[in-house]
Each structure stands twice: as structure tokens, then as C-alpha cells.
Design brief:
The chain has ten helices and five strands. By secondary structure, it is α/β, with parallel strands linked by helices. It folds into two domains: 145 residues, Rossmann fold (3-Layer(aba) Sandwich), CATH 3.40.50.1000; 79 residues, DNA polymerase, domain 1 (Orthogonal Bundle), CATH 1.10.150.240. It has a five-stranded parallel beta sheet, with helices on both faces. Helix 9 links the parallel strand 3 and strand 4.
């Protein structure tokens, strides 16, 4: 059932998903692991600071200031800059490398696997994430995410919102933009996808940044679909 928005003329043939925050709980997962490994560290502060470095790090690639760099590398550069601030400057290379792979071990939101499985019964589903291929593959195997394939912006050597990412996904499946639905918990991602002709669905994740920083998840009339979670999106698209 729609949320006060007009039903699109046709359903999608392909649904691509943002992953960090939309499908997996990056904040809760990092806080949990850091708290277990380093009980004296401000795990919430580290998680938020690490994520805060995400867009600035990618902007260096987007602007052309540096060549293509996988997200694993960017995450590690951000982490190395943060560790002294959080009292972890003495970590060994092996410890740093393993901590950086926490992004490969993120837990799905409770509704994600079941909701994606339902959607996969009718639609082709794939991530369209800034995460690199190795990261997304390891995450999917660990979390049981039932993707039909793993699609990363690494394939296009560009980070969202570069049009090569959205249109590259469309072209990879031999479709037209209007046959592809982008689902995300971030309006800027959806705005960019829609500007290139994709359909869009907003997925509410009010606790993406933790319970102390709730997000505004007010529906936007620009999105044909608005869902409480991925299960609710499946209800709407499957008509159940």
C-alpha cells in the first residue's frame, strides 16, 4: 500500500539497494565490536567519527584529486587518523587491518534478510553500494544477504552520486532507467538516482546513527514508495 504517493505505471525489473544504513546496521555493529574489544574506548564516538570521514574521503576521488581507490583503503586511512584520538594509536598493523575489516562484518537490520528474500521471489535484487566487491561479498556471506549478484560502484570506478554508478547498473542488466528501482535510507542517494530516471523507494532507518541521534524519516512526495523497513517495501511491491 502506498503512503500517499502515486503508484508508478510499472513495477521494476531490478531493485538495487544502498547497503550501509539501509540493509546493514553499521553503527550498532561497530559499537558492539569496538566495545567488546576495547571496553575503555568511546565506541559510539569512534563509530560516528569513522563514518563522518566517509564522504570527505570519497570526495577526493570524485573531484579527480586522486585516482580510483577502493573503500577498504579509504576506511583504513580514516581509521589510522582516528586511532590516536581514541587511545588506540599503539595498535599493531595486524590489529589495525582486522579492525578495518569490521565493515565486512556488519550485521543486517532484523528485517533485511527476510524482506530481501521475499523481494527476490519476483525481482532481481542487488546492492548498489560504495563498498568494494570484497567487502560486499564477505558481508553478504556472513549476514546471509540473498543477493542475485553483488554489484559495487568499484565496477564503474566511481562513487555515488556519480551518474556512472546508477546508469552503469542499468546498463549492466540491459534495462532502461525506468525499469530499475533504487532503495535507500538516504534521500540524497535517491535524489541522484531519480535525476537519472530511476524509480526510488525510501526505507526508514531512524536509528542509523544510534538511539541518541534519531534521523528524520519524514516521507518525501518525490519517492513513489516509502517503507518502514524492507519487509514493508516487499508488502507494497508484492501486493501482500
Amino acid at each position: 500500500m502506498m503512503t500517499g504517493m502515486n503508484m508508478p505505471a510499472a513495477q521494476p525489473r531490478l531493485i538495487v539497494f544502498d547497503v550501509f544504513g539501509t540493509v546493514v546496521d553499521w553503527h550498532g555493529s561497530i559499537v558492539k565490536e569496538v566495545s567488546e574489544r576495547f571496553p575503555s574506548v568511546d565506541a559510539n564516538g569512534l563509530a560516528l567519527a569513522w563514518r563522518a570521514g566517509y564522504q570527505p574521503a570519497m570526495q577526493g576521488v570524485r573531484s579527480g584529486a586522486r585516482g580510483w581507490v577502493r573503500l577498504d583503503v579509504l576506511h583504513r586511512e580514516i581509521l589510522d587518523g582516528l586511532l590516536p584520538r581514541f587511545g588506540l594509536g599503539g595498535l599493531s598493523e595486524a590489529e589495525r587491518a582486522d579492525l578495518n575489516r569490521v565493515w565486512h562484518r556488519l550485521d543486517p537490520w532484523p528485517d533485511s534478510v527476510a524482506g530481501l528474500t521475499r523481494l527476490r521471489s519476483r525481482f532481481t535484487i542487488a546492492p548498489l553500494s560504495n563498498g568494494n566487491l570484497a567487502l560486499l561479498t564477505a558481508m553478504a556471506k556472513r549476514a546471509g544477504l540473498p543477493w542475485d549478484c553483488v554489484l559495487s560502484t568499484e565496477v564503474f570506478q566511481a562513487y555515488k552520486p556519480d551518474p556512472r554508478t546508477y546508469l552503469g547498473a542499468v546498463e549492466a542488466f540491459g534495462l532502461q532507467p525506468g525499469e530499475v528501482l533504487m532503495a535507500a535510507a538516504h534521500q540524497d542517494d535517491l535524489d541522484a538516482a531519480r535525476s537519472h530516471g530511476l524509480m526510488t523507494a525510501y526505507v526508514e532507518r531512524p536509528w542509523e546513527f544510534g538511539r541518541q541521534r534519531p534521523k528524520d524519516v519524514t516521507p518525501s512526495p518525490d519517492n513513489p514508495w516509502h517503507a518502514r523497513d524492507i519487509g514493508h517495501l516487499a508488502d507494497q511491491l508484492l501486493g501482500t
